[in-house]
Amino acid sequence: MMALKMVRGAPPQALLALCLTCCVAPLSAAPPLQGAPQRLDDGYVPVGDILYSAEDWACLHAKNLMSVERLWPRTEGEVKIPYIITYKEMNMTMLEEAIGAWEAKTCIKFLKMEEGDKRAEYLEFRAGGGCFTVTGYVEGEVTVSIVDTCKGRSVKHEIGHALGMRHEHKRSDRDNNVIVVRENIDPKMASNFEFSETINCGIPYDYFSLMHYQDTAASINGKRVLVAKDPRFQDIMGEGTEITHWNAKLANTMYKCVDDWLEACGQTSDPCENGGYIQKDCSCACPLGTSGDKCQEFAMSYRDALLEKYSPYTSVINTPGAEVTSPGYPNDGPQEAIRYTQVMQAPKCKKAVVTFTDFQLGEEDDMPNCKYTSTLEIRTDVSVGDGKIFCGEGIKNQQVFKSDNSELIFHYKNYDFLGNGGENAYRGYTAVFTTEDIPGCR
Predict the structure, then answer these.
(1) Residue 388's closest CA among 377, 396, 399, 380?
(2) What is the CATH number of domain 315-437?
(3) Angle, CA 402 vertex, CA 399 and CA 404 arms, to 5°
(4) Where would you find the membrane-spanning parts of this chain (predicted)?
(5) Which DSSP helix (H) or strand (E) runs through 290?
(6) What b/e sequence results for 106-140 when a residue is b if at least 16 CB atoms lie within 10 Å of its CB, and e otherwise?
(7) Could you tell me the end-to-end alpha-carbon distance of the chain, in angstroms, rounded to an integer?
(8) pLDDT tens, N- to C-terminus, the chain (442 residues)
């Protein structure tokens, strides 16, 4: 196992501490947890991928709001984080790729210390006890642990915590974007889903954030813990493996990188539009859905652009009489593993109604286990965390499904026939979308 160890140094500038307070969630009040995790020998308490010091854990349970400085200090206008490696079995390729990803997107630099370097402030990669981190810089000893099972996204995610970034799904606006299904959370992990009071510096909630959990993360029963209020993102929420535009903009705002670059580029205000920001080379970093040297060309929203890139079969169907079909129906279904969501959306006071006319995702006897086959999950409302799963020939001709309110949601997962040496010889499905009145609704 590996760990990042941060050691005491001078406190950050007041402005940076203020930005952290605005942009990054402090530890918030949380109810006592049942089945609390075991303390490590040094007093730290690992919960999921967050490592709490004994003091932080006590404050959390005393319902105190923490207001500690979490940003690494700037020295002569630069943020340089020295580090050493004492874990001899460290996967250097994995670590260097993760560090390099953050360096490429921000003004933060990680500097490997020479033997005999006696400076007091540094990161130490060493053996630890799991995949977790204390969030950001603090005065005193702070430890971040990364094990070999933390690969790719996980290492970048943990370094994000070390820089002072908290989980996306704890933001002050998270309740506008996700539903937290508390009965499905492993009690030992509950603090990773506590609400935090934050001001988010104008940076929108990002389902694809490197700092967002997947929907079943920390589940005690395999059911969803996080339900996307925009159901199009349910299957790709928390699946991002790279630092997103908004992750980078937040870090560069926290550490005043943008301010420094504006000054160096002779700009008094940021010339980049539509959520873009100026970079070290004086060009604009533009979010998905925009283009042009100043991000001035707006093609679509960031969320729509995300779906176009990462889940192109996802769609919203809102025209009565429209067909609802699987890709390639009936003779050319996908061979590779894909996932998508179809949202049948009715007007206010109308139910969404879908009537199937054909359904074949596998063999007749695949139901009800649905292993090693493509599946279709049907949810009757956004508020319904888990729906019924169908496979094989589990839906009959003229079988009807209705929403509880105005949205009926399909989540399709195509079996990886190509990767498993098979062939998708099944038709898929087709259905018709209609609506009907909700009795008593006005």
Answers:
(1) 377
(2) 2.60.120.290
(3) 155
(4) none
(5) strand 290-291
(6) bbbebeeeeeeeeeebbbbbbebbbbbbbbbbbee
(7) 59
(8) 334 433 333 333 322 333 333 343 333 333 333 444 567 777 777 766 656 667 555 544 433 223 335 788 887 778 888 888 877 888 888 889 999 999 999 999 999 988 888 777 777 777 776 777 777 776 655 455 565 567 768 889 988 888 888 889 998 899 999 999 999 999 999 988 988 777 677 889 999 999 999 999 999 999 999 999 999 999 999 999 999 999 999 999 888 899 999 999 999 999 999 999 999 999 999 999 999 999 999 999 999 999 999 999 999 999 999 999 999 999 999 999 999 999 999 999 999 999 999 999 999 888 888 989 999 999 999 999 999 999 999 999 999 999 999 999 999 999 999 999 999 999 999 999 999 999 999 8
pLDDT at 22: 38
Cα angle vertex 361, ends 360, 366, to 5°?
100
Q: CA 163 from chain center: how many Å?
A: 17
- Contact between residue 198 and residue 25 where contact means Cβ atoms under 8 Å apart: yes
The tokens for 54 are: 């004994």
Rounded-to-integer distance, Cα 346 and Cα 378, Å: 16
User: Regarding beta strands 226-228 and 277-278, do their DSSP bridges make them parallel or antiparallel, or are they unpaired?
Assistant: unpaired
For 402, how many CA atoms within 13 A lie in the half-sphere containing its CB?
8
Active-site option among 158, 168, 377, 407: 158
- The whole-model pTM stands at 0.83
Is 158 an annotated catalytic residue? Answer: yes
CA atoms within 13 A on the CB side of 148: 6
What angle in degrees, to the nearest 10, is found between the helix axes of 245-254 and 257-264? 80
How would you classify the pairing of strands 108-112 and 79-85? parallel
The domain segmentation of the chain, as residue ranges, is 2-171, 256-308, 315-437
Residue 3 and residue 12: Cα distance in Å, rounded?
23
Q: Which residue numbers belong to the known binding site for Zn(2+)?
A: 157, 161, 167
CATH of 2-171, one of 3.90.220, 3.30.310, 1.10.1760, 3.40.390: 3.40.390
Q: Which amino acid is at 101?
A: A
Q: How far is CA 400 from CA 351, 357, 393, 432, in A?
A: 12, 10, 15, 10
Q: Which residue has the tokens 């409302």?
A: 381
| Cβ atoms of residues 80 and 119 within 8 Å | no
Q: Which residue ranges are tagged as binding site? A: 157, 161, 167
> How confident is the model at residue 131, as a pLDDT?
78
